[in-house]
From TrEMBL:
The lineage of its organism: Eukaryota, Viridiplantae, Streptophyta, Embryophyta, Tracheophyta. Keywords: Membrane, Transmembrane, Transmembrane helix. The chain crosses the membrane at residues 184-202. The keyword Oxidoreductase does not apply. The gene is LOC123424937. This is TRAF-type domain-containing protein. InterPro entries: Innate_Immune_Apopt_Reg, Znf_RING/FYVE/PHD. GO terms for cellular component: mitochondrion. It comes from the Eukaryota.
Length: 211
């Protein structure tokens, strides 16, 4: 009955002056504005000043807390805008936990780089090469030299294969312009021989002209 009365009161006569309701922004006949405003304040939705959504008045506080209230990060104690909370948790919080890429131990993001500098300098024994390799260089070392086989010697046949791999490993270290160590020596020898032959021919040509 009251709702019907309010609805009737809301029907604006073009000849009657109107006032704007502070709650719903509708134009209401001025004589009825007080009744309408009281009803509107109790029952109707309010426009959220943060997102523009129309929210039931009784739910406005909860809407603000759930969607717009700043969040206090429990890890770093910073106050973060609600809209940036997910980004802060995943990428920005200096106390978020990250795993070391070498030992997989989890540390706060603020400490991870210093830890990895130390951890990456630890060594791991490479059996095919018979030497220790730094952890920071391990992946590149395996890809460069042992991408197809990485044999652990358990028998005489395995040890034989290991010796072959070790020899190949020494040949492949420090390639120069795509050449292995043996190929480089051969190239130098051929170049030296060519220079020597050229020098002899040049001396003979000079001797013939003087004669």
């Amino acid at each position: 009955m009251a709702a019907a009365a309010v609805s009737a009161a809301d029907s604006a006569d073009p000849a009657v002056a109107t006032s704007t309701c502070a709650h719903c922004n509708r134009e209401i006949p001025s004589p009825n504005i007080a009744l309408h405003s009281a009803h509107c304040a109790r029952n109707l939705h309010l426009k959220c000043e943060h997102c523009g959504d129309m929210v039931p008045r009784k739910h406005m506080d909860k809407h603000y807390e759930d969607n717009h209230a700043p969040v206090n990060c429990p890890r770093c104690k910073q106050t973060v805008e609600h809209e940036l909370w997910d980004l802060h948790k995943r990428l920005q919080c200096p106390q978020r936990m990250l795993a070391c890429q070498y030992c997989k131990f989890e540390l706060p993001a603020a400490d991870i780089f210093e830890h990895q500098d130390v951890c990456g300098n630890q060594t791991k024994y490479c059996q095919p090469c018979n030497k220790d390799i730094r952890l920071r260089e391990w992946i590149g070392h395996e890809l460069l030299l042992h991408s197809k086989t990485n044999v652990t010697p358990e028998s005489s046949s395995d040890r034989s294969m290991l010796e072959k791999e070790e020899g190949a490993c020494h040949e492949q270290v420090r390639p120069v312009f795509g050449l292995t160590y043996k190929q480089l020596l051969l190239t130098i020898a051929i170049a030296g021989l060519a220079v020597l032959i050229g020098s002899i021919l040049f001396q003979r040509r000079i001797g013939s002209s003087e004669a």
